[in-house]
Each structure stands twice: as C-alpha cells, then as structure tokens.
Design a protein that fits this description.
globular; Immunoglobulin-like; 28% helix; Oligo-1,6-glucosidase, domain 2; TIM Barrel; 548 residues; single chain; alpha/beta; 5-stranded antiparallel beta sheet; binds alpha-D-glucopyranose
C-alpha cells in the first residue's frame, strides 16, 4: 500500500512551471528538465494540474478531450517520458481529473448542442421559469447566473463555473461509465495518483431557488455523492492499492469528509477542504478586504485535525495552490521577516496530521503578483469579479486592491528559477507576467543558501520520513486561546512532538506547563531559543519543533 501518511506532494501548475520551447507557456518537457530539483526537495508525488486538450478558458479545468495532451503542453511521448523519469527518481505522478464539468468544446457537449438527445442527457438542461427567468437563482462560482440559455432548445444548461464549463449529469449511468473509462486509461499509463476536481459537487440535489445563499447548499455534498465516489473507487483506482487519491471538496462539511476520506469508506485517500482559507473572507464572500482572523484559523484547523482523526479520516494539509494567494503574503510578511515567516508557515503545515502539499514556488517563499492593471490579470474569475465589483458601485481603485489580495493569478505567475530574463521561466514572452522580485527570490539563490526557505522545506520533509510521530501521531491542540501562538502536540508510541509557532512579527511568550528543557529541538527558524523550564519566549515568527 502506498503510505500516503509518510508522503509529501508537490503541486505543479504546468503552464507556469518551465517553458522548454520559448512559446511562453510551461510544458511537460520543461517539467522533465526540472525533476532533479523536485527530487532534491524530497517529495514523493507530483500533482500536475490538467494538461489535457482544452481551450484554456479556465487554464485547463475546461477539458475538451480527456485522452489527449494539449499540444501546448507537449505530446503523449513527453508524458510517458516524464512518467518514466519521475519513476526513476522515486516520484509518482498524480493527475488532475475534472469531472464535474467539461469544456463546451468537448465532443459530448457539441453533440448535445446539435440536438443529439443521448448527449443532451450527458449535461443538465432545464426549462426556465414561467416568467422566462433561469430555472433557479443559483450563482456561478465565477460570477453571474449558473444557467446559460440556449435559444434553439428554449432551455438552459447548468454551469457552476464559467459559461464554457457545462456541468455533467452524473445521474446518467453512461456518463459515469465514460468517466470510469478515462480513469482506467490513465491508470494504464502508470499514473500513481489522482486529484479529483470539485468532486463533491457532482451530485445535484433539488433544483430550487436559494433564498439564503448562492445555491451551493443544493449541490454541495449532494444526495448521491457517496454512492458515486464508492462506485468510481470500486470500478477504477480502488483496484490498485498503490494509487493515492485526493478529492477537492468545495464548501464541504466535516461530517461528509469523514466518509470521503475514511479509512474504510473506499472513496478517497484524503480530502482538501478550504474553510481555513476563508478566514480573510466575509462569510463565503471572497471579494472583500478584511484582515485574517487568527483565532478562527486556529479553531478551524484544530477542529479538522481532531475530528478527522477521531473518525479515522485523513486530511490533505496545505496553505497554497493555484487558486489561493501566496501564503507568505497572506499570513506572513513579505518584507522584513520574509524568510522567518515563510519557514514558520511551513512548520505549521508540515507537522500537522495529514499529507502536506507544497505548491510550486512556495518552497522559495514566492509572493503575490502585485499586479496593478486588469490587463495583467489572466484569470477568468478575477476578470469577471473585477467587472462585477464595479457594477456593484465599488471604485476601480478599490476593486484593484481586492484583486491584489484575492486573485488566483497571485499564485500563477511563472516559477522563479534564477535572476536571468523572465526568471529563467521562458526565452519568449510569458503568458502571464513574471513577478518583478525574481532577482531577489529565485531557486538558484535558494539552493546556494544553506539557511534558505527551500532548505527548511527539505528538512521538514525529511523529518516526516524519520519520525513516525509526525506521520502517524495523535493530535492535540495547545495554546488554543493564545492570541499569537499556533501550537500543538503530536504523540505516538511514547514519543512526543511539540510544534510551537509565533504567527506574528513581534515577540511573544507562553507558559507551556511542561518542562521544555527535557525536549530536543528538531528544527527551528532561529539559531537559539529562549526556553526556561515551562516558559518559552518567541522571536518574530519563530518556529520551534521539539521532540521527546
Ligand atoms: C477547482 C480548480 C480551479 C477550477 C475549478 C473549476 O476549484 O482548482 O482552478 O477553476 O475547480 O474546475
């Protein structure tokens, strides 16, 4: 069995990782050329976001053909070589499967639009209300109505995301069979894992107006979700104990995740949940500016840690991905304590109970994009909301400030490899601008510095391999009410690990209540510590990982 509890996953956004042919887009050959770098970090798996044929309206999350590589990214031969080269280095590939929706350019949808009943039934077409309004008042996650009118049928189709991403009808057994075929196809290519995109949205419940929210309660963790996931498991990856899976669970509930990622539930190995990354939202509203709520952040992570463990379910743990702003900009300090805070944030995640995910560039302390013009933004969600914010009467300047903090493009700027032109990402013009700080923040520099953020991630990864308490230990929240400190204890077979982190840029103290002098320090982002008996004083963003 793949021991995903001892593993660490590195996420690649191929479009922004490494270009090998000068067209400004990252590609598979580019990834092959960087495998030694990834190997050096020490990770076990690479999750790559979709590189299938796609019109790229949502950067590949709009799939036109699941069986072929988009020529922009390379060829099937490139994929096979990547797979072989990764395997040589002991790294498994995880693919990103988008099955809640397809692209509107997918053959199935094209046939549906042409009036083929079989394929119309692959999607969700509904009549509008009598007054001509869409079937329900649900909102698309990318802004606007979730329904698109098709005049020819006098019907609407559902798209929870962009209008170019029609939702699939999982009620239809033929759809489920097609999806199983696709998963088995990629299993045949030697893939070692899968990430399933927004997979908890595939079972729609009642098509009713939502008078309390944007509609999500009618299709999130829907009525047949567990049945569908068990079926997918049983007919595809469940037959291979080596394959690991992670489900991206949008606005999910913890109770459902006990089942999605339960040890014996035969659904997914683990889940991504996002509640801890909404602590700088207003409820579910992302397009606002509010400072992050530290106590809430702790409470959410602690609750998930404790309750998932109690229910024998497994978390994926992470701060960053291609949909989230850069964590050092978000919860750390881009300035004076850039290095200390990036390391501290890494320490928080990597000692939790769960499989850690690192998003490309996180290990370098890459920061938010700092874009100031809408033309610099490429993301469909950002562009839509920039318009919507202004329609709501928010000034352009204020809308820019919001985008600067929340846009998904913050994490999509090219990987910063060195101080050369375009940060070493491409010889051409990159599809999205390189962060101008690439001369200060880049992989070459990090690799030359023994005390770098990269080196810190390396150490955290190797600690997980060395100390079973990190991989398997029980979890206990500490300092729950402390205004600055994020601390917890892990225990396993008589061993104990204390992870103590100062989340802020000022000194702080904490009375732990146990004699800390009995512990050995496994890792810290400062050279010396102030420990006296049960008292610890922490420097700005100090992180100390103690072991007994
Ligand atoms: C997931 C992906 C995101 C994409 C969306 C629709 O949330 O991570 O990038 O836009 O699903 O597929």
């Amino acid at each position: 069995m793949a021991d995903f509890k001892k593993s660490v996953v590195y996420q690649i956004y191929p479009k922004s990782f490494q270009d090998s042919n000068g067209d400004g887009l990252g590609d598979l050959k580019g990834i092959i050329g960087r495998l030694d770098y990834i190997k050096k970090l020490g990770v076990d798996y690479i999750w790559m976001t979709p590189f299938f044929v796609s019109p790229q309206k949502d950067n590949g999350y709009d799939v036109e053909d699941y069986y072929h590589i988009d020529p922009r990214y390379g060829t099937m031969e490139d994929f096979e070589e990547l797979s072989k080269e990764a395997e040589k280095r002991g790294i498994g590939l995880m693919l990103d499967m988008v099955f809640n929706h397809t692209s509107d350019r997918h053959e199935w949808f094209q046939k549906a639009l042409a009036g083929d009943e079989k394929y119309k039934n692959f999607y969700i077409f509904r009549k509008g209300k009598e007054n001509g309004e869409p079937p329900t008042n649900w909102e698309s996650k990318f802004g606007g109505s979730a329904w698109q009118y098709v005049e020819k049928f006098d019907e609407y189709y559902l798209h929870l995301f962009d209008v170019s991403q029609p939702d699939l009808n999982w009620e239809n057994e033929e759809v489920r069979k097609e999806i199983q075929k696709i998963v088995r196809f990629w299993m045949g290519k030697g893939v070692k894992g899968f990430r399933f995109d927004v997979v908890n949205l595939i079972s729609k419940g009642a098509y009713e107006d939502d008078h309390e929210g944007d509609g999500r309660r009618f299709y999130t963790d829907g009525p047949k979700i567990h049945q569908y996931l068990k079926e997918l498991n049983e007919t595809t990856f469940g037959t291979d104990a080596e394959i690991i899976t992670v489900g991206e669970m949008s606005s999910t509930s913890m109770e459902n995740c006990y089942e999605y990622a339960g040890e014996d539930s035969h659904e997914m190995s683990m889940v991504f949940s996002f509640h801890h990354l909404k602590v700088d939202f207003m409820g579910n509203e992302k397009w606002v500016l509010v400072p992050f709520d530290f106590r809430k952040l702790k409470k959410i992570l602690f609750d998930w840690q404790t309750n998932m463990a109690e229910h024998h379910a497994w978390n994926a743990v992470f701060w960053c991905n291609h949909d989230q702003p850069r964590v050092v900009s978000r919860f750390g300090d881009e300035g004076k304590y850039w290095k200390e805070s990036a390391k501290m944030l890494a320490g928080v995640i990597h000692c939790l109970r769960g499989t850690p995910y690192i998003y490309q560039g996180e290990e370098l302390g890459m920061t938010n994009a700092g874009f100031t013009d809408i033309e610099q933004y490429q993301d469909v969600e950002s562009r839509n909301h920039f318009r919507i914010l202004q329609e709501k009467g928010i000034s352009k300047e204020a809308a820019y400030e919001i985008l600067k903090v929340h846009s998904r493009d913050n994490s999509r700027t090219p990987m910063q490899w060195n101080e050369e032109k375009q940060g070493g990402f491409t010889d051409g013009t990159p599809w999205i601008e390189v962060n101008p700080n690439y001369k200060e923040i880049n992989a070459r520099k990090e690799l030359q510095d023994e005390d770098s953020i990269f080196a810190y991630y390396q150490k955290l990864i190797s600690l997980r391999k060395q100390y079973d308490v990190i991989a398997y230990g029980d979890f206990e929240a500490l300092a729950v009410e402390h205004p600055d400190i994020f601390a917890y204890k892990r225990t396993w077979q008589g061993r104990e690990l204390l992870a103590i982190h100062n989340f802020y840029g000022k000194e702080t103290r904490w009375s732990v209540g146990v004699n800390l002098e009995e512990y050995e320090c496994l890792l810290s982002n400062y050279k010396d510590h102030q420990i006296q008996g049960g008292e610890i004083s922490l420097k700005p963003y100090e992180s100390v990982i103690l072991y007994k």
